[in-house]
Fold this protein.
Amino acid sequence: MSNPLGPSGPSGSSGPSQPSGPSGPGMTAAVAFAGMRRVSPVVFKAGCPECRGRFELAASALRLAIGATSRTTFYSFTCPECGSAVRKPAGERVVELLTGGGVRTLRLHSTV
């Protein structure tokens, strides 16, 4: 099977050739996605302050609320073990990880 981007490696070429245009000549969906693997869903480790349970949650089980201050920025979920509604503060790094992992985000606006 030939490489759709052209030759590469130590064979003396300066690198892969670039296709002309955004999809290249003769580019098909099968060629564009050849070699791609299925991506595992993102999971987040979490804990419940009520029952002390430790578990992993899919991005769809979490919600992120971003407020004007650190006091109004938090993430929430329902504990899968005891059913408690859990709300935890989200610092800058947590916000970055959750948004990058596909967690649905709500931006809170001030009324002033």
Notes: The radius of gyration is 22 Å. DSSP finds two helices and six strands in the chain. The beta strands are 43-47, 54-58, 63-66, 74-78, 85-89, 104-107. The longest strand covers residues 43-47.
